[in-house]
Amino acid sequence: MEIDFKDISYLQKGNARQRSAYDVITKYQILEKLKSYRPLVVGTIPINIDIERSDLDIILQTENFESLEKLLIRLFATHTKFAIRHTDKNLVCNFEIDNLPLEIYASTTETEKQTGYLHMVKEHQIIKSKDEKFIEKIRDLKRRGRKTEPAFCELLGISGNPYVEIFNYKII
After folding, report:
1. Would you give per-residue pLDDT tens digits along the chain (172 residues)?
2. Are 142 and 49 in contact (CB under 8 A)?
3. What is the CATH number of the domain that holds 113?
4. Would you say residue 1 lies in a domain?
5. Angstrom distance (rounded) from CA 140 to CA 131
6. Looking at the domain assignment, is residue 2 inside a domain?
7. Sheet holding 40-42, edge to edge
8. Please, what is the angle between helix 132-143 and helix 148-156, to 10°?
């Protein structure tokens, strides 16, 4: 089954963590409040390779980091573990709602062209071609501190820069 990652309704039919993520997103109207920034939910939770300490990632597109920063402070500063930082090229905002850690990442790149989205889609395609043991090995590597893309590349025998080379992997 192909998932439309632009429509989060698939999360409400997923595992407990995915349903919890859906509940938080909808209860607090997070995507609606950030709608003008073209939000997309990405990362490990949507594709069910998250581990206990994984956060829910939301990516945004903006041309005005200052305006976005003010909005994020207004919307989320009262939540636990709120932190925000930005450079000329991106902004990262972290906080926790209902025991779910969230990370909002914004750049000037369209959300559908950001690597967070593209990696998730590619990883989902790979996962669909593998068995549950592969998924559990990914989680195990992540629990031992490995980032997602390097974990995939290690298991798939891909050398080089994992953030680039994962796109070259051919699914058989």
Report:
1. 678 999 999 999 999 999 999 999 999 999 999 999 999 999 999 999 999 989 999 999 999 999 999 999 999 999 999 999 988 899 999 999 999 999 999 999 999 999 999 999 999 999 999 999 999 999 999 999 999 999 999 999 999 999 999 998 988 7
2. yes
3. 3.30.460.10
4. no
5. 15
6. no
7. 40-42, 56-61, 100-107, 90-97, 80-86
8. 130
Task: Please indicate, yes or no, if residue 49 is contained in any of the structural domains.
Answer: yes
Q: Which residues contact 6 (CB under 8 A, 6 or more apart)?
A: 40, 112
- SS3 label, residue 45: coil
Chain centroid offset of residue 127 CA: 16
CB 106, CB 69: distance < 8 Å = no
Token digits of residue 127: 């996962």
Q: What's the total number of domains in the chain?
A: 1
pTM, full prediction: 0.94
Is residue 3 situated within a structural domain?
A: no
Please name the residue ranges forming H helices in the chain. 16-27, 30-33, 65-76, 115-128, 132-143, 148-156, 162-165
DSSP 110-123: -GGGSHHHHHHHHH
* Owning domain of residue 91: 8-168
